[in-house]
Amino acid sequence: MNKEDLLGVLQAIYEQSQASRTGLAEKTGFAPSYISALVADLRRRGLVEEGGRSPSRAGRRRVLLHVAPDLAHLVGIRIGRANMRIVVTDFLGKVLSLKKIPTNITMGEQHVFNLIEQEIGAAIKSDSLIKGIGIAMSGVIDRNSGTLLFWPKVPGWIDVPLKRRIQNKFGLPVVLEDTVRTMALAEEKFGDAKGRNNFVYVVVSMGIGAAIYINNRLYLGADDLAGELGHTTIDERGELCSCGNRGCLEVYASGWAIINRIKMGLQQGVHSSLSQLTENNPDRISIEAIVNAAKVGDQFAHTVLWEAGVHLGTGIATIVNLLNPEAIVLGGEVPRVAKNFLLKPLFHSFRGRTFHRSVSNLKVLVSRLGGEAGATGAAIVMAEKLLPEFL
Ligand SMILES: [Zn+2]
Known about the structure:
The protein has three domains: about 5-65, Arc Repressor Mutant, subunit A (Orthogonal Bundle), CATH 1.10.10.10; about 70-185 and about 370-390, Nucleotidyltransferase, domain 5, CATH 3.30.420.40; about 195-365, ATPase, nucleotide binding domain (Nucleotidyltransferase, domain 5, 2-Layer Sandwich). It has 15 helices and 15 strands. The protein has helices at about 5-15, 20-30, 30-45, 110-125, 160-170, 180-190, 250-255, 255-265, 275, 285-295, 300-325, 335-340, 340-350, 355-360, 375-385; strands at about 20, 50-55, 65, 75-80, 85-90, 95-100, 130-135, 140, 145-150, 175-180, 200-205, 210-215, 215-220, 325-330, 365. It has a five-stranded mixed sheet, sandwiched between helices. Helix 6 packs across helix 15 (about 375-385) and helix 10 packs across helix 11 (about 300-325). It is globular. Zinc ion (ZN) binds near residues 243 and 245.
């Protein structure tokens, strides 16, 4: 069998999670008989298995194929400014184990690095099937070299050759990917974006980012920088952003911005139950604490969340007007925790700034995936890279 064709079919099956022979023929353009022969070869090699059947439509139900889940296991790790999540997954991205630990970023680069290595090491020790490591970072990365170029709002961490360091340490292939994109990939595989061709995944956590899917493909941009929604301008003369520009969306609607506004308000003596709730310790002000305050009627917490929602709605209106997607999926801690405190003003704001026609069919959804989605997506990126190795 032609190796390239085998790989093409294997990749198509992996991409679709479950694929029928007829669907593969349509997707690849190969004759059905050739597809059958290729699939038979892949099954003989133990790479592909038959699973369930497609939902009954008119005619025969089709047998569905999937890539063998135990082809390899993977470590996925998402390194965030506050926490890191470590998962071990099977080849299809099913989470076998899951861990969340504080990143302790203030203790310095070496400390965090030791922590990363310790966690990856422990995961590898526990599972002999692990064949690769996927790392998701929220900083600015060079995907080709696997380098973290810099990490906004985190001192140090400039030009860190993450991929090389981890690869040398463990002797396994490593891939470094942007967290927003790994989260979006998980959403596309397992979440509300599944089966959608044109959607934008928007992450609102400490920063704001987006992954744009056009015709079922992630749009990377000419310099691999597409999706920097957080640094689109919503006020030309606005406050200074960490990127050097003024009035970026991130300055008004990110988790960091929300927390910062609360901190400043409390410092200036604004009356709020948050002073008591956090025992006057600014470090205890979290999105969760702010939402809890809003829930019990705290006007200040409510207003700050409302304003962030309005700004976010403006940012999302820009996406909708520009791309006319079928869905916007909101991921990250802020929408997950704040829910309607953020969504109500968000809808209000973006409906007023978009054409009725482009919004009437638009779905705006809050991701239902857990906080481990970024790590799981990183594992899937690694799995995709490993596929050619099996042929
Ligand atoms: Zn900016």
